Amino acid sequence: MSVRxxxxxxxxxxxxxxxxxxxxxxxxAVDVIVACGSGPCKDMAVLAARLYHRGVAPTIVVTGxxxxxxxxxxxxLMHQVLRQKGVPDSAIIVEESARNTGENMVLSAARLLxxxxxPESIVLVSKSFAAARGRVTAHAQWPEPQPIVYSMATKPPFxxxxxxxxxxxxxxxxxxxxxxxxxxxxxRDYVEQGFIVPREFIQxxxxxxQRLKKxxxxxx
Length: 220
What we know:
alpha/beta, Rossmann fold, five-stranded parallel beta sheet, two-stranded antiparallel sheet, globular
């Protein structure tokens, strides 16, 4: 992505980011928290620990594989963070094989079933701008009987998240990831393949996406 970022581009990226970060209100109580890994990001485990200590759920599943691009194991990393935040091992289930969001759902459900847990409700904790896709993926791929799904994510303001990635030399990766997330909802065949259920199309949000595409920005 070599296009120079203008003020209007920044606003359009912020529009997409805020849409993708759409979360449910925090529930009073659910059966399980499912924290989905995303490379070296620890935010999901931090939020999962906060929810646990508030009494939202008695069990946390951390799910994610050994990511080849970052040299870390997502589930192990989140497990370590949970322990640092005072969550006991007895409350943590580690799922170490999921390579994508769909596998996060299927394999987490399988690990829970091994413990005799068939949740009626879950909080799905994702990285900030994966909250919207997390919800529709759970509705498509969590095995029957399907639980009630609350999708939550840490939601740092767009500027702060952009600046954090810029400091680490990941600005282009961050921006292309936002476009890629939006495309998975509407412009790739994820619905047709059963990866997600359809999500409401909002013209004003799509206008921001189309402007960025015309400017030469691409999704990953």
